[in-house]
Amino acid sequence: MRKPAENIAILGLQWGDEGKGKLVDLLSANFQHVVRFQGGNNAGHTVVVNGESIALHQIPSGALNPGCFLVVGSGVVLNIEVLHQELERLRERGIDVGKRLLLSSNAHVVLPYHIALDNWRESGSDRIGTTGRGIGPAYEMKAARLGVRLGDFDSPNAIIRITSVHREVSRIIDGSTPLPPPEKVHQNLNSLIQPIKDCLGDAQRHLLDAWRKGESILFEGAQATMLDIDHGTYPFVTSSNCSIGGLFTGTGLPPKVLTKVFGVAKAYTTRVGVGPFPSELKDSTGEHIRQVGHEFGTTTGRPRRCGWFDAVVLRHSCSVNGVDGLGIMKLDVLDGLDSIGIVKGYKDKSGKHIAHLPSATYGWEDIEPITEYVDGWKVPTRGIKNWKDLPTQARKYLHTLEEAIETKIVYVSTGPDRDSGLATPRSWAKNWLG
Q1: 57 catalytically annotated
Q2: Is 45 a catalytic residue?
Q3: I want to staple 39 with a disulfide (CB 3.0 to 4.6 A). Which of 108, 189, 222, 287 is the partner?
Q4: Which among 33, 45, 186, 231 is annotated as catalytic?
Q5: pLDDT tens across 181-214, in order?
């Protein structure tokens, strides 16, 4: 009989960059397996330990915990060159994950042609603000059945499929960008795959076996719900399902494997690139949050747009994912503000109240946020590790968020380092989070 295990998913609830990497790193010491199930190197998870940070883009953030086995599922699109760079950065810090890393043979490979197509599109008037890493075109070719998978490099199938992608991208961009010949791309990728060939395998079977044996699994989401291709601010989204459904398609596991869903949001809101952002602050307060919070993209370095906490967005994301508890990150960034806004709803041009997200793209154009302001706090929250030590107004702010989003907060981050944060009273995650 299978032993019961706590299997947790950590999912972003805003437009990404919420601090999922910190929570995965923090919790992974309690889990035997950590899994990435979608996205590519357009995701950037930063982990800070003892003041020293490391950015991971494709390798699960459990890498810094030696007891974790790391799995990259079939729903991920992998840039093999970037993967080698990540492995080398870890080795430079004395962390060799080679013997505890499994890459799904069914994961698709990001080709130079995908990157060329991505940048070609972003140079036009219809740009949507992608990272230019080729992630969207890789998923596009996957859906068109033109993709190249890691396991293809064991057969002549790889060069055939690379040639097909070359032909397709050449047709689209019509000679506007020079493309490397398929033979050269194949040779380069094949040489990069050989050193990590022992890491390739059947990730679905590995995870099913682990689940049946009662081994604990932590699932690490990339990007966030508002960037989900079905449930986000389409078309200004990523090209995969980064909400809860992507976990099951990206691993091949059944829904009953999951015990709880841990949602992650900042104490305010950010997004990178273009697209709707009702709570955005285009003033000195927004710039203050950006500078204090170091809101610049992990992957691209782009400045993030900053705004107040949007409870409408969070209610939507918590509903889509069935969130059991919320982690609020970067509370300390709001230290010292006289007042703090919370977007409780929207209104259209006629003044009609809108309590939910617009269902169509054009619906975002004419809405305005309904913002409620609460008093800020002057006593710093930075580094606080006990709920009772938080300033009274900070606790009131968190209670106001809970009421607005109708979801319990179970963890609060008070700084970037691993040990800067606290579990809330009666938190179901208290044993893991301290």
Answers
A1: no
A2: yes
A3: 222
A4: 45
A5: 999 999 999 999 999 999 999 999 999 999 999 9
